[in-house]
Structures are given as structure tokens and as C-alpha cells.
Amino acid sequence: MTQDILTLSATEALGKLANGEVSSVELTRATLARMEARKHINAYITPTAEHALAQAEASDKRRKEGRAGLLEGLPLGIKDLFCTNGILTTAASKILHNFVPHYESTVTERLWQAGAVMTGKLNLDEFAMGTSTENSAYGNTLNPWDESRIPGGSSGGSSAAVADYQCFGATGTDTGGSIRQPASMCGVVGIKPTYGRMSRWGIVAFASSLDQAGMFARTVEDAALLLEASAGHDPKDSTSADLPVPAWSKNLQRDIKGLKIGLPKEYFIDGMDTRVRDSVMQAVKRFEAEGAEIVEISLPTTKYALAAYYIVNPAEASSNLARYDGMRYGLRVEGDNLLDTYIKSRSEGFGEEPKRRIMVGNYVLSSGYYDAYYSKAMKIRTLLAREFAAAFEKVDVIMTPTAPNPAFKIGEKADDPISLYLEDAYTVTVNMAGLPGISVPAAPVEDRGSLLPVGLQIIGKKWDEQTILQVAFAWQTMGGVERLGWRG
Which of 83, 41, 268 lies closest to 167, judged by CA? Predict the structure, then answer.
């Protein structure tokens, strides 16, 4: 019975909650038992069992009183980058090992207002800096498809928890691919909306002009529903767009005939993993067979995008991480004087990847180098946005691989940060241009004895989450989105 409950989609689970077949307390207890049985996956940093059951009991009471919200009684996991009132929020960093916020992020507050239940805080790369969840101060998260492999990153705990039935959906953040890439690695749906669609208030900042909250789910309709419940204008976030939130989940049907799909030639180059190329092209051909028109497009600035991203990203990170100095909250290591306390607190509190980005960021922003690096990177960003805008005058969506390869072995690239940065090659352009993107599972591939997921990335024009959700739903209807089988 537990397996039958936990393998439901979020939409299916909400249906059973609504008709009384299962209570939120029962659903939450089953989820918590799964989390305990599968804790070696290390998806959670901080499970919140007592808090979850209290929320579930309150949810069941509201439902009996006829006050059910959009997500009433649904157990969700929260990436440990979202501040949660009265609950430890670490950003997977030693420097925030004891940080308990007295406020709630806007995104999570909206989820609780919709009736959702929090199962716990999910693992990630420290401060969301990474592509493999190997940079967490709380240890690696394992990929449920093959536990010797990474789950992607930075939201690896979120993708693994959703894939492993340890929650019915999860929040994530996406600065350069941190929702879409782990969704690809774990065979789930991951959506990053347009920059400004979801509030960043109460999310631990990484690179403020790139960070955007989004959602992980096992189906496209689930992703649409979770996005619907949490998106919208927030006056506390100056970058939040004052736009209405469409009823995305109620408008997923679309005729594919006549849909124009752009294939950027820069994303299908010699040297890319042929298995990934074949899997994505199989999907493209299926769309073509259903009546879609395939259009080759060019985004020539793409070849500079990754280099520009890794200038903008650490520059903003170094500024945002300056606040962690051992003075007001977090880790404090006493030194001989104020400067020594700063140095010791930051040296012991930050892991290797944040230190690397702080140093790179300070360098590119320093006197004499700002114009040589940061200023040029911002010009590349403008060119990317213009090229995407021109492309969307010809096509409705753009399709690419989500990641250049399937999940690799834990530790395989740990000593080569450049190869890890290359994992972002197909996703950073979307963040640089502020566009919405979604990753859905394409055909899995064989790799060294394991069957592993591959992600199909669907990119849309600004504020057009509806179209990418419709196209993703069409792919799911064709049988393209297959759920991970029961493990453990």
C-alpha cells in the first residue's frame, strides 16, 4: 500500500486527498517512512518529521472544514537555500551550520498558504555552487538510478528526493542550470521560470541577477501546479515582475501541428555525447511526426556564453558572500583581532568551491580588470538576449539537450573544476537571457552497465511558461516522460 501511495503523481495524490481515500497525515507518514528507509541517499539535510505531521493534521482539519488550498495536504521537500521560519537553513555550508531564520521565504510561504506540508530541507551544493551536489558540507547525495553516481546539482537533493519518492515535489533554484541539469540526471521534470516570475525574497543569494526559484516534479502537470501555487509578484523583491499568474495547470492541452521548434546548431556540435544527441533527436523526430515544423536556427554568441557566465556568476557571488563574516550569525572563529576573526571564520566556514568563486569574483571586479572582464561579459549577455529574441520571431520554442552527458560517477570529476563547469554548457544561456526553460526526460541511455536518464530542454520566450509546459505535456502524452521505478 505504501508503494502505491508514494508512486502517485502530486496531482493524483491531491485527487485522493480530495475524495477522502487518504488523509494528509497518512500520506505524510508514508513519505517520512520512505525518507527514513532511504536516508542513505542523503537527499535531506534536515528532515522535519514533527513539523510535517503538525502541518498534515492542520491540513486534514482544514479539508474537513471545506477550506482546502491548491496543494492541500501534499508533502513537499524544500531546497535548503530557502529560509524557513524557525527551521535550520544551512545552504549546505558549514558557515551557516546554526542559522535559524525568524522569517519565511516568499516562495515557501505561498506553498504553506496553499496547504502544502514540508517534509524537510534538501541537500545541495554549498550556496548552490556546483553541478553534482558533491560540494555540500553535509556529504554527497546519491542518484537513485545508480547510487554510485551524482544526482546533478546544485539542487541534487531535490531531484533525488522527487525521483526516489521521498516527496511529491520539491523547490529548487536555478542560477545556471541548477534545476534543469539535476532534473535531467535524475529523470524528473524541472522547470525554471522567467527571471522575475518567482520571488527571490528569503532565498539565500548566490548570483542575484541570475538566481531564479523553480520546481521539481514527476509529471508536467505537477510542475505546472506547483509553479502556479508559488509564483507571482512580491513587493519585497525589487526584481519581481508585477504580472498575473496564469492557470498553467488548466491549459496544458495543445495541438502540436504547426508548432515551430528551433534547433540551434551551436548546441549539436561534434564531440558532444552521441547518446545524448541521439536521445534528444529521437524526441525531435517524434514532434516532427506529430506535425511540428523543425527549424534550424543559429545562436552564435553561445560559444562565449559559458565563459561570460563564469565571470558574472562569481562576481555577484563574491559580493553576496561578503556578508558571512562571523559577526552577526553563522560560524564564528575567534581570532587575535577583528581581521583575524574574519579570516578564520571565512576560511573554516566556506568550502573549496565558494572560496574559488570569491577569489575569481574579486579578481574580475578589481581595479583595472572590471572593463577587461565583467564589462565584456555583460555585453555578451546582451547579445545572447538579442539573439534569443530574434530566434523567437521565427520559432515557438527551442529544443536542446539539457546536459552534455548522463550522470557521472561520484568523484569522477572532483579534481577538475573546469570539466564540472562544462556541465552547464547547455543551460547557462537561458539564465543569462532571463528566459523560461524546462527539462523533461528523453529516452534513457546505457552507460557502463547502468540505464541513465537524459534530459530534453525546452526553452521559451520571456513570460511564456505556458507554451513550454504545453510542449512538455505533449511530449509526456506521447509517452516521453516515464517515471523511475520503485527502488529499495
Answer: 41
